[in-house]
Amino acid sequence: MNNEDMFNLLVQRIVDEVIKRLNNRPKTALVCFTGAAIGYTNGLKAMEKLRKDGWQLKVLVTDSSKQVLDLDKIKKALDVDQVYTNENVFELKEFVKTADEVILPTLTINTAAKIAHGIADTPVLTTISQAIMSGKSFVCAIDGADPDDEVRAKLGMGKVPAGYRKVLRDNLATLGTFGWTLCAAADLYEVCAEKKVSECAAPEAAAPKAAEPAPAAPVSAPVEGDVIVSHIISRKDLMTRKGQKVVKVRKDAIITAFAAEAAEEFGMKLVRE
Fold first, then answer.
1. Which top-rank group of organisms is this from (predicted)?
2. pTM (two decimals)
3. Is 193 helix (H, G, I), strand (E, B) or coil?
């Protein structure tokens, strides 16, 4: 073996070792909770699964979330010693620069509106704005900011005037134009972990815990006539319509990857109305 061959072999070994270490490096994410209660339970469970997968997480919360969410529960579930706030978010500057993703497990209508319109009037929003401008990858569960969310309707907030509903839908659509991945909180883990739903099913997930009773059957998404009016179409929405060959959704609906997968699996055709 001549010197050139030895050099090339050494370079290849170095490249292989670098790739190996990169593949084994735990993924990192800045997890930002806003004050949305809708979708919070599913969002927190998703982040807990990522933590168990070995992800390194730093948690940032808005002032409103401190009033609505249980921060001690978040710290325990995600095994973090500290939750960052507007007061000390500057300490995350270096972490955000190297983080693989920014994840919003909860999103309020107010936060969605501000981000969509480039408003960064708090240190937390400034951090998000800087992450957007630096090209960070964002994944966001939009349940709490979706005017068509079924839980919102059950809470008596489903009679949104058409004009206001359009404003809220447009804000979410704008986030999508930023390159954000928008999803239902129930699909958040699968989206972040880039796994199919079937790959993530666990025995304990099949049956609801006694502390958090669930309905015997999945609840259908809101429907007007025969059209699903939810802004975001999830796998769950289609599971409740097995057997239907054609499922109509809104013209501007966001069809998640898992919904598209379910449609193919169930032999459904999704038609925009």
1. Bacteria
2. 0.71
3. helix
More confident of the two residues 233 and 198: 233
**Contacts of range 67-71, beta carbons closer than 8 Å, 24 or more positions apart:** 67/35, 68/35, 68/36, 68/37, 69/33, 69/35, 69/37, 69/40, 69/106
DSSP symbols for 107-169: --HHHHHHHHTT---SHHHHHHHHHHHTT-EEEEE-GGG-TT-HHHIIIII----HHHHHHHH
With both helix axes pointing from N to C terminus, report the angle between 40-52 and 71-78 in degrees, rounded to the nearest 10: 30
What is the token pair recorded at 50? Answer: 């990522």
The span from the CA of 190 to the CA of 262, in Å, is 14
CATH number (3.40.50.1950, 3.40.605.10, 3.40.50.2300, 3.40.30.120) of 20-200 reads 3.40.50.1950
Question: Minimal CA–CA distance to 109: which of 192, 44, 39?
Answer: 39
Strand partners, 248: 227, 271
Whether pLDDT at 29 is above 90: yes
CA atoms of 194 and 174, how far apart (whole Å): 23
- Domain residue spans in the chain? 20-200, 215-272
pLDDT at 76 over 50: yes
Mean local confidence (pLDDT), 239-263: 81
Structure tokens at 130: 């800087």
Cα angle 39-41-43, degrees, rounded to a multiple of 5: 65
Cβ(173)–Cβ(135) below 8 Å: no
